[in-house]
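Table 4 source record.
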Amino acid sequence: APAPQRSAPAIASGTATPETTSSRPRVAGASLGFPVGMSAAADDPARAAIRVSVAGSVGYGAFLAGPPLIGVLAEHLGVLQAMLCVFGALVIGLLASGATRPLPQTSD
């Protein structure tokens, strides 16, 4: 028998289920990632405008292109392999994040 469907009021009431409990950290991470990235891009006042525009373009491009690309991968490779590709992109991003460390201060 199919699993019973939960109504929106039951979900909104805060009743903890495995589905809602596991999705809350993902939602919190996704909702914080873009604003924190934009704030970090604006850290250097001299180049804030260009950095924010690039970060915004990359972020919105990922929001628009990511889900269809994951869908195509899932259709051809399977859902697990598509999610592993997302995990691989995450690992690459984490490894590349060292390039965002602050530049050493120079004394003029």
